[in-house]
């Protein structure tokens, strides 16, 4: 009878433990790394053994179509929301909100007004609502309080912090007693040098080699800390870069009076807010003014850009052809390399590589959209996604397991009111179900033990009291 008791006891104990903790034990981990401005084809330009290593033992997507405009903040927010900029609201690096009467400016670091960010719920909030911890190392938007939340652990943006120090902190977060399951790591280059030198400059070669060395350092540290085979490492970027020239300049002062409008954002896509009564005059003056300049009224912006259904998009949008620069006058800043152009241009496309237990090995895929990353992250982390513009089906062939049929979460319309409370209720309901199930099993176990103890009381009384007492607490 004792052996039967032990078998039942340990079976029920194992069942209880499994229900309560299996979610934590089977938990997948992700480290998402963005090398800002890393164009998709840089890995073919110079030897990049560490990128090659990930491709050999992981997955590689040859063509990643990012979102318009192809700039830093809109694309980084798309990666963590799965939404087009017209839906998540970060429509440019610099923008004006007429409703708030406030300006958002990356150049001046005026980016901390929460209201600019709250048209969407980024993945770190989704992850934390689901009961997990997130670590964010200077990823755009993670040092902003969005929907009253920060990431569990985060470091405010500080470009003076070295890559090595950023990696060390991320690894520390993975090793805590209450570890993270999702980390976001951002690095400024090769974007900065791409702007200064231009991507066609041979001096970019050592910059690309340096990024490969940094990736090698990250791999080495993950291996040293025994995280390499348990963490899913995803390497991507926000956009590419194209060569510009001082001979390809569009000077707005030649066509319109600067006193008649406000100029917002930077080349090559610029937003124009005409002053009262000046709209028709400005549009007529700019339309067909230059053969390498395209001018759109807001309502005429092509649907393929997914870039007209938001109040922060201004009445007139002007866009330069690839390699051309729009300036107000010759006193304006000019860069030898730039991005922001049409997202169909291959020069604007980023890269995508991944390695880890969730991914196949030595697999390449022809194409994906940057919006597809968000549902992929949610699937790997096993958290319910918010509505998004991506497609898990578009990237399921990268995964080591067959993806279950997904409840559709795609959206093609702009997101206006984000109801965070409904999502919290859904997530809490899931975890409350797990909790209550565990409680029921534990109560059953206690009742069973009490019944078994009473039924065996004569046998117990005949034994030495020293072993009878602990038996009740086994």
Automatic annotation (TrEMBL):
Membrane topology reported for the UniProt record: Single-pass membrane protein
One Pfam assignment: Phosphodiest
Any one annotated GO CC term: membrane
Signal peptide interval: 1-24
Cofactor or coenzyme needed: Zn(2+)
Main location per the UniProt record: membrane
Subcellular location: Membrane
Transmembrane domains' residue ranges: 428-449
Classification via Gene3D superfamilies: 3.30.1360.180, Alkaline Phosphatase, subunit A
Keywords, comma-separated and alphabetical: Glycoprotein, Hydrolase, Membrane, Metal-binding, Signal, Transmembrane, Transmembrane helix, Zinc
The keyword Signal appears for this protein: yes
CDD domains in the record: Enpp (cd16018)
Top-rank taxon, per record: Eukaryota
Gene Ontology molecular function, alphabetical: NAD+ diphosphatase activity; zinc ion binding
Family: Belongs to the nucleotide pyrophosphatase/phosphodiesterase family.
PANTHER family tied to this protein: ECTONUCLEOTIDE PYROPHOSPHATASE/PHOSPHODIESTERASE (PTHR10151), ECTONUCLEOTIDE PYROPHOSPHATASE_PHOSPHODIESTERASE FAMILY MEMBER 5 (PTHR10151:SF125)
Name the record gives this protein: Ectonucleotide pyrophosphatase/phosphodiesterase family member 5
Organism in which the protein naturally occurs: Vombatus ursinus
